[in-house]
Amino acid sequence: MPFWAQFNVLDYLTDIIDILIVTYVVYKVIMIIRGTKAVQLAKGILVVVGVWFLSSFFQLRTLEWLTNQAITYGLFAIIIIFQPELRRVLEQLGRGRIFTRGTVVEEQHKQMTEAIVKASTYMSKRRIGALMSIERKTGLNDYIETGISLNGNLTSQLLINIFIPNTPLHDGAVIIRGGEIVAAACYLPLSESPFIAKELGTRHRAAMGVSEVTDCLTIVVSEETGGITVTKNGEMFRDISEEQLKEMLHNELNETENGTGSLRWNWRGKHNG
Question: 234, 273 in Cβ contact below 8 A?
Fold first, then answer.
């Protein structure tokens, strides 16, 4: 029988659609768990599977038996330990959001922007000093480890409460990651740039310093003047208004998700660096 007679276009088309659907679902699940503790779980599972494969290949029977038990009973442990994450995925599936990740991310960025702008404006009017860094592509774990772990939902009330003078966490930086305040009272590297205005203090030098070695976005509220400053990529933008801060956060957070990020916004503030 000729080859073309055996060729079934429908079978091949079905296989291609099947592979594409599975790939898309796996991609969306990875996007949902990205930035959560479930990522560490996925890494652990890969390690266990890798050990099982090697033990089976080299016929290490005891190790193979142990990894088999870990895989068998580990599934029940995963369901119990990560019940909140699994519930969140099922809720998003029920709302049809597992296939609309962009909408969920945009909503999260909107809430982050509102919380940071509201807190910054409140502290600016009352001249409460503050230092907030938003993690982007470059991880800030080295600086998170110097502070106090919080892992709390990002709200304007929590931000304001952290920076109230004479409280245990007010001195240092807050680090924000994916809608959460990961840590407070963190130490950031101080910039040694000679171009920083002499009237600026430690908070501004720390904001400039961390912007020189990472791609994070850092907001400073001056305790002396109440002015709001933003640093990014070794640049400092001073005297930012509420609307300018809101526009900048909106643009930068959304552009980060799309793989870009640049200061494309209109402002009339002072510029250093």
Answer: yes
